[in-house]
């Protein structure tokens, strides 16, 4: 007995479904972009060929497909998880002769193998079942199973034939294995309603090692275009049908094929004599092994050649089939086939890897995210008319489709400044159920959204399919670049219910910050804040809009003792939230030290410096009020830049500093909140001799020197400092501005990345502001 070889975690997968399904990133991309893709079985690796031929053949077949621009989707079960698309290391492990306990997995075996956590190679039937569930319409294999000789007594008929009769996936093969009863196999295929067509200039049905079996196929197809047309037609009938494309081994191997066929007949006689023919699924592997021994290796060589030939034909057909898919408008009769592309998520919260019942697929391939962003993900459709709009007619113009949504924008902006796969967006996308099945499929806008996220380097494992809802979208009509009318369809975000929010956070160990926009319902926001408070995870809230700001107010009122970590309003949102807090009895005494008289308690020089940059006293007053509900306020002021306010509980130092190098970058102001006439101002943050406020020309001059980038440290008490840090806007001329939409979201993403960077605030904020400038020069929501 060989030693059991455990599987190493795969490293290139991208999404999982209920812990049972893992798609490679390559496969996920092909499905979401409707690119050519071909399914491949894995029994040939685990049971069909000896090592190392099994590995080299698997790699060769995948290489042939890729060289033609077709994505190979090798399917296997690894430790109870269905994998579609295998890495080279997974193929190596699956082909390892020391790997024990692997099983052949047909349709009947799927549930048992998954539930028991076993590893196995999928047969033709098993591969078709899985491929169909994902909308993969073409499958390449060596040869199909069939009716075994003597089946009139043993009733030994391959499950492949039954699957071909009920699972509409086109199969490219070299006919049935010659160890089978081919005429009876053809009869069963006819009974099952399978469209059998020979590929080439004859309608001879091939017999695996031989280009002819002595029997005819009902149909004959001569080229890839005709084959694709037949497959496409069968798949788009009201009740989709299977096409079995029988490809003969190249004629150059005819002589060798005849010699191998003689070995087949000998092996069959031996199987009857030894009683092997009555052992069910053990028969085929035994016969193939024996034929290999009798033929001196010729059978194995021909097996490799015919599979490689099938792959070449399959690639050509896949390319033509893909053209038909893209060129023909999807209609009601074809929806069962086309809309399955790119679907893998279920209508449940995203599953995470590791123990405790979490999804094992995702963590094996992507690192755990350090950032979670909850919020809207949408598709923006912008129509710009080139002339004045007229009623009841179309107008020439330009239509642009781009990804949007506040949460999605923030996630992309943060990911742009963080290591790969650091940010997981948790959002909802639309889905439906395939007719006559229980398979969930992502809607068309959802597929576009996924594709765009992948293209921009964003992981998609946090997108949750919601059956019966539409992926969020916003359609805008512009005339001369001004908005005329628009329609927003954003209700799907309300499907991020409290239980899904809680689950997503609790199942993401190691997350360092949770950000959210206010498209979420108040009850979901409350659940998010309570969970983060329990797990001591910092939070960041982006108010999103004036109307949505009310969601935060309602949530905070339910949690009078909770403080956000970060809040990033713009000036209009600031006014709404601050006004509510001013009236709220819950927060009057939250931070009593902040009940300041600005003219009395804040040095005039500070207020004047801020005012020169557009931050008047009322804005400062409103921002201070927000510190009763959050530890940090990041105020987005558009052309004014960014104003960061926070409280520092570090005790005041009384040690004199000998250095004055910080004068030009940091202003520190110490005040006694009870004094109306004096303040102590020091460039290095330490006490100096008191000066009268009226005698401050030198301080004012120095403040003016740094009025575009200032930091003020105001001592509220001996143990409490108010820090106000102003960051200037990006350097960009009016003529360079393409759009300001998304600038605020880009800034928030930059703040998130900066908070995790370990750099000084001024350093990372410079990077964040640079990205804002890039967005303003771009048509995209995030540049």
Can you put this structure into words, describing what you see?
By secondary structure, this protein is an alpha/beta fold. It is elongated, with a radius of gyration of 33 Å. The protein is built from 27 helices and 30 strands. Among the domains are: 121 residues, Indigoidine synthase fold (3-Layer(aba) Sandwich), CATH 3.40.1790; 184 residues, Indigoidine synthase domain (Indigoidine synthase fold, 3-Layer(aba) Sandwich). 50% of the residues are buried. Helix content is 37%, strand content 20%. Helix 6 runs parallel beside helix 8. Strands 13, 16, 17, 18, 21, 22, 23, 24, 25, 26, 27, 28, 29 and 30 form a 14-stranded mixed sheet that branches. The N terminus is likely disordered.
Sum up the structure in keywords.
about 775 residues, alpha/beta, Indigoidine synthase fold, 14-stranded mixed sheet, twelve-stranded mixed sheet, about 35% helix
